[in-house]
Write a structure and sequence with these properties.
Blueprint (H helix, E strand, L loop, with lengths): L1 E5 L3 H13 L4 E5 L12 H5 L14 H5 L2 E4 L3 E5 L4 E4 L4 E3 L2 E4 L3 E3 L12 E2 L4 H10 L5 E5 L3 H12 L3 E6 L11 H13 L3 E4 L3 E6 L5 E6 L4 E3 L2 E4 L3 E3 L15 E3 L10 E3 L4 E3 L13 H15 L12 E6 L2 E7 L9 E7 L6 E7 L6 E7 L5 H9 L4 H6 L15 H11 L12 H4 L2
Parallel strand pairs: 1-2, 1-7, 2-3, 7-19, 9-16, 10-11, 10-16, 11-12, 18-20
Antiparallel strand pairs: 4-5, 5-6, 8-17, 13-14, 14-15, 21-22, 22-25, 23-24, 24-25
Helix pairs in contact: 1-7
């Protein structure tokens, strides 16, 4: 079997390694023009900030690929002929396959703003974007970031660490309004304030202005305000990369359409990761998942099917994590940004406005817990997942809250204050704290 994988990100590499384990004799070729090696996308910002070197974000040593007989063709696939099982590459060659995995990832989403293709205007998704940002922000005074999601705050922090003034434009009335409730968004906004990063809420981009050399010189908002800048970061989301799929008869919609086995409509052609769109997502799941861990899971799942061991893909209970400057964030399960029929939430915030937790639970008895938000403290993934999966009553969760505490041993313990506030907000529960973390649980 010759397996060809388009893309050497987490999905493609996970698939390659899993296939190598399941079918040691298989020939495996990865095709990518982005880089000559696999790297961690989530660590790109730390290279820019000087915390890591470029070589530090390679999960595997250079000898690893030859040792595991994983070949890399450093090229771009420009056409796919599924009738002949053939890829056309931009280096003038073709590549035949027996099985093909499309793991082409995402590309930055653009909205047709005038000037969006000027020099110094970009998103941040891959290594070429990091290289462009490093080059185009050298020696500048101000950068404008458009968008208020995870990438938006990353770009603002990156600029800030290099002494470049960031200005963030956020369309919504608060930070990441589609994901974070107002209280959590306020904690993130406090991080912007403490780090002297200006944010304009309720502000949209209308156009980007260029100078005589074709480089950005300013942005104009929909209110007509012109803001001088020398660089613009577009953090308005990503969209599945369908460039290659659209040269073929592989069916696409927003993404490359796949079934529960990550198979496309074409025999021996699969898709996984950011570029895949599930025809029938599981209950509570979304059709397109663009996260590192779901990409890894899909890569492993599709490898089994490619090797003749068909495996359904199911993400399981949702989770995500991030860091907003100095504020860590975790979310598990159902964690809606606003009031949701049938759900109630309990929110506790420390007086320092740097630590908070929200627990979502069903409004009707037995008040089963369905989700968590945590900011400034760490919760154990396995514990939260178990509570959600077992539909644990909120009173039980609160009484054993220490079991989920993943902070270092001698960090401040907040369980007592959290439970006291829960009893104040929900007097009918009368929860007694039975389990605190670590050392304190045994005293």
């Amino acid at each position: 079997m010759h397996l060809v994988i388009l893309g050497n990100g987490i999905t493609g590499v996970t698939c390659a390694l899993t296939v190598r384990r399941l079918r040691p004799e298989a020939r495996i070729t990865l095709v990518s023009s982005e880089s000559a090696h696999h790297y961690s996308r989530t660590a790109l910002m730390y290279v820019y900030m000087g915390h890591l070197r470029a070589q530090d974000i390679k999960p595997y040593a250079d000898w690893f690929w030859a040792e595991n007989r994983l070949a890399l063709v450093h090229a771009t696939a420009t056409a796919l002929n599924t009738a002949e099982n053939l890829l056309v590459l931009d280096n003038g060659t073709t590549l035949a396959y027996d099985q093909l995995l499309l793991a082409t990832g995402s590309e930055s989403k653009l909205f047709g703003w005038p000037g969006q293709h000027l020099a110094g205007v970009q998103g941040l998704y891959g290594l070429p974007d990091l290289e462009a940002m490093t080059r185009d922000t050298h020696g500048i005074g101000r950068g404008v970031v458009v968008g208020g999601g995870l990438i938006g705050v990353e770009l603002a922090e990156m600029l800030h660490t290099r002494g470049i003034e960031p200005l963030v434009l956020v369309r919504e009335a608060r930070y990441w309004a589609s994901v974070l409730p107002p209280e959590e968004a306020n904690l993130v906004d406090r991080q912007f304030q403490e780090n002297h990063v200006a944010v304009r809420y309720g502000t949209e981009l209308r156009e980007i202005l260029g100078d005589a050399d074709g480089r950005v010189r300013a942005v104009v908002t929909t209110a007509g305000e012109e803001i001088a800048c020398q660089w613009v970061g577009l953090a308005t989301g990503v969209t599945p990369n369908l460039t290659l799929a659209n040269t073929s008869n592989v069916e696409t919609a927003q993404g490359i359409l796949v079934d529960e086995f990550l198979r496309t409509n074409v025999p021996n052609v699969f898709a996984a990761g950011d570029c895949a769109q599930h025809r029938q997502p599981g209950t509570g799941e979304v059709p397109i998942e663009q996260l590192w861990y779901t990409g890894r899971m899909q890569g492993e799942t599709v490898a089994h099917t490619i090797c003749g061991q068909p495996m359904h893909y199911r993400r399981g209970i949702w989770f995500n994590s991030a860091k907003f400057f100095n504020l860590e964030y975790q979310t598990y399960g159902q964690a809606p940004a606003g009031p949701t029929p049938g759900l109630t939430s309990f929110y506790w915030e420390h007086p320092n406005s740097r630590t908070a937790v929200r627990v979502y639970f069903q409004s009707e008895a037995p008040h089963a817990v369905v989700g968590f938000n945590a900011l400034g403290l760490r919760l154990r993934h396995a514990v939260c997942e178990q509570w959600i999966a077992q539909r644990t009553p909120v009173a039980t969760v609160m009484s054993h809250l220490g079991a989920a505490n993943f902070d270092p041993e001698f960090f401040p313990q907040h369980e007592k204050a959290i439970v006291a506030d829960f009893n104040r907000q929900f007097p009918g529960q009368s929860v007694a704290l039975k389990q605190r973390k670590g050392l304190f649980a045994r005293l």
